[in-house]
Amino acid sequence: MFSRIPFHRVNWLISSFLIGTFLLSLTAVPAYIWRFGIDRFQIALFFAMFFACGFSITLGYHRLFSHLAFQAHWTVRLFTLIFGAAAFENSVLLWVCEHRSHHKHVDDDDQDPYCISKGLFHAHIGWLLFKLDPPPPFDNVADLQKDPLVRWQHRHIHWIGAFVGFIVPALLGLAWGGWVSALGGFLIAGVARVVVLQHCTFCINSLCHYLGTRPYSSRCSARDSWLMAIVTLGEGYHNYHHEFQHDYRNGVKPWQIDPTKWIIWTLSKVGLTHKLRRVSEEKIALAELAEAQRQLQERLAHPGLSEVAAARLSGACRRLQAAAQRWMEQPKTGSVTPVSLRVAELRREIRAATAAFRGSYSRGRA
Ligand SMILES: [Zn+2]
Ligand SMILES: [Zn+2]
Question: How confident is the model over 34-68, as pLDDT tens digits?
């Protein structure tokens, strides 16, 4: 079994950290809770660290630094760099380098660092256990290398991470309730929080390319899932994100759960973020239309489709085509009301067509 592992490529530092913190979470953390219990302070510290570090990854590392989806005051950038380091997902420079490669070469076995076609385990954590081959060239992060805060974080990443991620929770515990509380802060808000948060964010690379729907494009494996959105602080609408990566929103519909978007928007109201980038409603609706049409055509071509299901799908196809035609023929006045009415009409037709597609699929199978 071990003879198949390429030991010369193992990233010993990262592998030891990931495995060590995971084992401590399964042994020392429950032992501490069994021996000393857990009080409100420890729970509050766990969640404070979880959300500070988690949003530093989603808001900072991902939407701000990787995709330049908005601009932020230096205090926001510094906060996300400091608490992002405490998430122990590497420096922002390396994280962004790998993430931009993922978007550019998504689903390409050779160039996507966490390609889902190599399996869920590889996309989730397996890729981190080995050094990238070839090593990241840093040729796609020249813009970030000009930022002195980014360069500072890259130089001192392990020290910042260890201090903010482990020593600060222990010191806060010490101040709250002495040495026992200090140990609790280290184990619960430090070690256990790192492990839980890492696996939540690793889900973006694994389950967000595996579970859910593809309403905007089936050209790549990324999927939309409300369940994953809860786990990943809003990043679960990954199909939308891969189609429109520069939009500061991932959950673009009003009812979708995207706390990272809500924070960026709120910060913009107090002047800490600005130039929030949004894709127009029309462009989004047209992407949904093209994808719904493509999926309907694919289903219609399915050899096992029953006559009833085929008739239902053909009807949906015609209605969708007619809605698209009306869309194209209407004058683009640029005023908000007609545009939003057209978008609403198109969305209704897409929903009806998708319902027909789902109904026909289950009947076809029956
Ligand atoms: Zn991204
Ligand atoms: Zn992805």
Answer: 999 999 999 999 999 999 999 999 999 999 999 99
**Predicted model pTM:** 0.88
332 shares a domain with 260: no
Distance 220 CA to ligand 2 centre (A): 9
Tally of structural domains, the chain: 2
Q: Do 110 and 64 reside in the same domain of the chain?
A: yes
Among residues 237, 258, 274, the one where a domain terminates is 274
- How does pLDDT run across 186-240, given as a tens digit for each residue? 999 999 999 999 999 999 999 999 999 999 999 899 999 999 999 999 999 999 9
Contact 292/350 with Cβ under 8 angstroms?
A: yes
**C-alpha 115 to ligand 2 mean position (Å):** 9
Instruction: Tell me how far apart the alpha carbons of residues 38 and 308 are, in angstroms, rounded to a whole number.
Output: 60
**Domain closes at, from 252, 274, 296:** 274
Q: How far apart (Å, rounded) are the C-alpha atoms in residues 60 and 156?
A: 18
Q: From the CA of 183, how far away is ligand 2's center (Å)?
A: 37
Please name the helix (run of DSSP H) or strand (run of DSSP E) that holds residue 102, with its range, or none: helix 92-104
Taking the centre of ligand 1 as the mean of its atom positions, its distance from the CA of residue 322, in whole angstroms, is 35
CA of 102 to the centre of ligand 2 (A): 7
Cα separation, 129 vs 89, in Å, equals: 12
For residue 241, how far is its CA from the centre of ligand 1 (angstroms)?
Answer: 7
What is the domain extent for residue 310? Answer: 281-365
Ligand nearest to the CA of 62: 1
Residues 251 and 309 in one domain: no
